[in-house]
Design brief:
This protein is an alpha/beta fold. It has two domains: 150 residues, NAD(P)-binding Rossmann-like Domain (Rossmann fold, 3-Layer(aba) Sandwich); 106 residues, Dihydrodipicolinate Reductase, domain 2 (2-Layer Sandwich). Helices cover 34% and strands 24% of the residues. The strands form two sheets. The chain has a seven-stranded parallel beta sheet with strand order 3-2-1-4-5-6-12, with helices on both faces. A five-stranded mixed beta sheet has the order 8-9-7-10-11, covered by helices on one side. Strand 1, helix 1 and strand 2 form a beta-alpha-beta unit. The protein is elongated, with a radius of gyration of 20 Å. It starts with a strand and ends with a helix.
């Protein structure tokens, strides 16, 4: 039997791709497409909005269908609302929205005590594999004689509202968890002085329609290691979110991530 999914933020750029790709998957059935109450296309078929055949699923601002798992790919304020709905109806939830503040993050952790919840800064399968490689590199270079300087460079489209990206910050969190850096610097200007070893530098580029690129630089004396993961279309994030939904449906309450989906 197909997994019944709902999408919160269904008329956004990522939401439309989720609708389109989910409609082509025989093991998934889109039954709910949600947006905010003032959206001008409420009542329009979600398939038509996404540029595919009609799906008989109108864009709505409340959940009225029974779903096996909900995917949230929206904005932080909308995440707060769908989290409350999923808690109330005991619906498994995939949170793919970025830019959540510390209070929202804590509410997600608390919600995972009651419902299955998968939360990740990136839905990309390749990004999550790159995070594992970055962790391995950090472990190997932690005690390098010359010391390893870590810089994280990320590029995204001009419409992205948060910086650095949640993915970049997660890379930094993973590396600092192994190497111990306590100073996380966002860009540099003026005369900051000699670079301390206990620092991770973040640099955010916002250009055109770039769907996402992250480069992790481990700088040594005499050599450099760089790990780069690059998206060529937003579909990689949508495919990852759908894989997460498949994984989460039917799971016990708890906080899961993409490593669980990948079996890492």
């Amino acid at each position: 039997m197909a997994i019944r999914i709902g999408i919160n933020g269904a008329a956004g750029r990522m939401g439309q791709r989720l609708v389109a790709l989910a409609s082509a998957e025989p093991d998934l059935k889109l039954v709910a497409a949600l947006e905010h109450a003032a959206h001008p296309r409420l009542g329009t078929d979600a398939g038509a909005i996404a540029g595919v055949a009609p799906l008989n699923v109108p864009l709505a601002n409340t959940l009225s269908e029974s779903v096996d798992v909900m995917i949230d790919f929206s904005v932080p304020t909308a995440t707060r609302a769908i989290l409350a709905t999923c808690l109330d109806q005991e619906i498994p939830l995939v949170v793919a929205t970025t830019g959540l503040d510390p209070d929202q993050q804590e509410k997600i952790r608390q919600a995972a005590r009651k419902i299955p919840l998968l939360w990740a800064p990136s839905m990309s399968l390749a990004v999550n594999l790159a995070m594992k490689l970055a962790e391995t590199a950090a472990r190997s270079l932690k005690d390098h004689p010359s010391g390893a300087d870590v810089e994280i460079i990320e590029r995204h489209h001009r419409f992205k509202v948060d910086a650095p990206s949640g993915t970049a910050l997660k890379f930094g969190e993973i590396i600092a968890g192994v190497m111990g850096q306590t100073d996380h610097r966002h860009g540099r200007s003026g005369r900051p002085g000699q670079r301390p070893h206990g620092e991770i530098g973040y640099h955010a580029l916002r250009v055109g329609d770039d769907p996402g690129e992250h480069t992790i630089v481990f700088g040594l004396l005499g050599e450099t290691l760089e790990l780069t993961v690059r998206a060529t279309s937003r579909d990689c994030y949508a495919h990852g979110a759908l894989a997460a939904a498949r994984f989460l449906a039917g799971k016990k309450p708890g906080l899961y991530n993409m490593n669980d989906v990948l079996g890492l």
